[in-house]
Fold this sequence. Notes:
Layout: E1 33-36, H1 48-55, H2 65-75, H3 78-87, H4 92-101, H5 111-116, H6 136-141, H7 156-174, H8 179-188, H9 190-202, H10 216-233, E2 251-256, E3 260-261, H11 262-269, H12 273-279, E4 287-288, E5 295-299, H13 303-311, H14 316-325, E6 327-329, H15 336-342, H16 347-353, E7 367-369
Antiparallel strand pairs: 1-2, 2-5, 3-4, 6-7
Helix pairs in contact: 1-4, 2-10, 7-8, 8-9, 8-10, 11-12, 11-13
Amino acid sequence: MASAWTSSQAAPLPTDGRYATDSFASVAPHQHLTSHFWDALELEPQDVWTNLRSDFRWQDQALNARVQEWIEYYQSSPENVAEITERARPWLAWITQQVEARGLPGEIALIPFVESSFDPKARSHFGAAGLWQIMPRTGDALGLKRNGSWDGRVDVVSSTRAALDYIEMQADEWYDGDLLLSLAAYNAGAGTVNNARRAAQSRGLAGEYWDLNLPGETMAYVPKLIAISRIISDPEQYGVALPDISGSAAFARITLDSPISLTEAANLAGVTTRELTELNPGVKSSTVDPRHARQLLVPASSADTLRAQLTAPLSGDTQLASNDSGMHIVEQGDTLSRIAMLHSVSTNDLARWNGIDDPQALRPGQRLTISGS
C-alpha cells in the first residue's frame, strides 16, 4: 500500500469495476464563445471548512478502532495534512458544492485526499490518474475521453462528475444505498466487495462494510476517509492548522467553439499561463481544442475579462476589409486568438500562414491572410 502522503502516486487505487455514464453538462456555444458559471448551490459567504463540516454525516464512526489508528497516523504529521489541504485550494469548494447538491455526505468531498493527495496530475504505476485516480479502461467506461490533446480523467470537472456518478450508481445498484460499501467498491471493485459480503453473511454477520474481510488497502480506505474528516471537523483538537479557503468556487468555466492557446487565453484574462495550465490539467497540449475539450477553466475573478476580450467586435471597416479581400487588418487591441475566432480558423494555422512566431508582436495596420492562400 502506498504512503498516505504520496502526491505523485496515489493510494489506494481504483479498479476497472467502475461503470457509470458521464453526466457532464453540455452547453451550446454562442457565435464565438459562451461563458458559463456553474449553477451550483449558492453558499453563504463563509469558508469551505464551515460548509464541509455542516455536511459531515459519519463522525459517529470515528470511534471505530480502525479509524482511530488513522487519526493518530495523520495527527503525527500535521504539516502533511496542511500541505495536502493547501493543495486542495483551487478545487475543494467546487467539489464540496457538487457533493452537497447531490445530497451526499460531505466526507465524500475528501476522497481526493485519500486517492491523490489532491494532486490532479497524480499518476500511479498502474496507470490511474487525476484527483480521483481513475484507470484508463475505467475512464473509458465512464465516458471520459482520452487522446493526444486531452485526458478527461485528469480534468477535475469531468472526472469529479464521473466519480460521483459511479459512487451513487453502485450504491443504488448493489448496496441498497449503502455508500460505505460503494466506496469499498470504488477501491476494490464490486465483485470483490460482493464476494466479501457473501462470506460475511455466511458467518452470520450483516455484511456491512465493517464486517468485511477485504484487501488491505480497501480495509483502510473508509477509515482513512473518516479519519481525515474527523480531524477537519476539529483541527485544533488534533493540532492541525488548515489554510483559509473561501466557500465560493475558485474557478469559472468558459465554453469555446474555436481553438485558443493557453498563453493567448492567459494574456486576455490577465493571468499567467501557469495559472491556466494548473487549472486545466486535462489539456495535454499548449492549445485548447474544442474538438476535444469545450471548456477552459479560469480564475473566477478573471472570467468576465476573458469573455469581454474574446467577444469584443471588430470595427465595420476591418470586417469589410476581411470579408472582401481574404485579409484581416489588425486594429488596436486585436489578439491572434480573437482574430482566429472571428474568421473560424485555428490560432496555430493563422500564425503559420502569416509567419508569426510571437503572437504578442501584432501591430495596428498589419495585414493578415485568413485563408493560407
